[in-house]
């Protein structure tokens, strides 16, 4: 491969015998209704030259984060974990401290909540959530944003109100790639990128496109927008495996990311495929 792809900053695993993934519904997602483990990922990552990953939460269940930390302790492939905890609970700081004291707790690098599922577009601005975000910052962790475009203005306001906390935008903020529309997403993502404590993952694009007919050209306007807005030093590659698999294989996602960044110099590509993730998540 042309780029030094060594860090995958966004993937998942799950075991349906341990816990249902209740978001896997309908025939389109049927291929995801099976177990996906690190043993499944490891050979694909190895073939792609990836030697470090960030394992990201899938469901808002407290038990999942300790399980992921234990996996990180056992498997050298996983260098960091973005877990979940209830940001709105009064004792969130103590919960974060307990998580970091668990086996593998040193691998906890960030927290994420399915903000995309919150009906309130300004959920991030609630007083109890702001208190939780402050606790995440105090713990030296980052906060991953999984949001829809309509929630991007609140993301920008939350980032502006918490300059000591790094906000990592997952999946470009889920732009409407299948429709080809750029606005208002592009303006909203540029407003977020104007804040220095924000970072963006070059991830999740194939599942926002037409799963059966997408081409790299369909993704390019969106990738170009975030590369220009954030700069390569604030962009990190993520596969979004296995969620990507109904639309593209692990290798296809990597090759497409290479194509979308081929206009960058070697140093900038190294930031996208390694440096940004290592720095932001302290891998």
TrEMBL record:
<dbReference type="Pfam" id="PF04909">
    <property type="entry name" value="Amidohydro_2"/>
</dbReference>
<dbReference type="InterPro" id="IPR032466">
    <property type="entry name" value="Metal_Hydrolase"/>
</dbReference>
<dbReference type="InterPro" id="IPR052350">
    <property type="entry name" value="Metallo-dep_Lactonases"/>
</dbReference>
<dbReference type="InterPro" id="IPR006680">
    <property type="entry name" value="Amidohydro-rel"/>
</dbReference>
<protein>
    <submittedName>
        <fullName>Amidohydrolase family protein</fullName>
    </submittedName>
</protein>
<comment type="similarity">
    <text>Belongs to the metallo-dependent hydrolases superfamily.</text>
</comment>
<feature type="domain" description="Amidohydrolase-related">
    <location>
        <begin position="7"/>
        <end position="283"/>
    </location>
</feature>
């Amino acid at each position: 491969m042309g780029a030094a792809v060594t860090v995958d900053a966004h993937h998942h695993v799950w075991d349906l015998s341990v816990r249902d993934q209740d978001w896997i519904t309908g025939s389109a997602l049927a291929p995801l209704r099976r177990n996906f483990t690190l043993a499944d990922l490891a050979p694909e990552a190895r073939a792609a030259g990836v030697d470090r990953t960030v394992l990201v939460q899938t469901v808002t269940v407290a038990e999942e984060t300790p399980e992921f930390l234990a996996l990180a302790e056992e498997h050298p492939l996983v260098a960091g974990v973005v877990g979940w905890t209830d940001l709105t609970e009064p004792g969130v700081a103590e919960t974060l401290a307990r998580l970091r004291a668990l086996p593998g707790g040193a691998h906890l690098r960030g927290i994420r909540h399915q903000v995309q599922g919150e009906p309130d577009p300004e959920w991030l601005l609630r007083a109890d959530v702001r208190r939780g975000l402050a606790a995440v910052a105090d713990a030296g962790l980052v906060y991953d944003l999984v949001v829809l475009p309509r929630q991007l203005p609140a993301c920008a306001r939350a980032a502006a109100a918490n300059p000591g906390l790094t906000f990592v935008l997952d999946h470009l903020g889920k732009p409407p790639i299948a429709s080809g529309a750029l606005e208002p997403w592009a303006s909203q993502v540029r407003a977020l990128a104007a804040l220095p404590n924000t970072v963006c993952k070059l991830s999740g694009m194939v599942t926002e496109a037409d799963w059966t007919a997408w081409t790299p050209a369909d993704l390019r306007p969106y990738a170009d927008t975030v590369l220009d807005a954030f700069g390569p030093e604030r962009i990190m590659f993520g596969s979004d495996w296995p969620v990507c698999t109904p639309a593209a294989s692990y290798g296809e996602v990597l090759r497409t990311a290479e194509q979308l960044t081929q206009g960058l110099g070697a140093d900038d590509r190294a930031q996208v495929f390694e440096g940004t993730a290592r720095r932001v998540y302290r891998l």
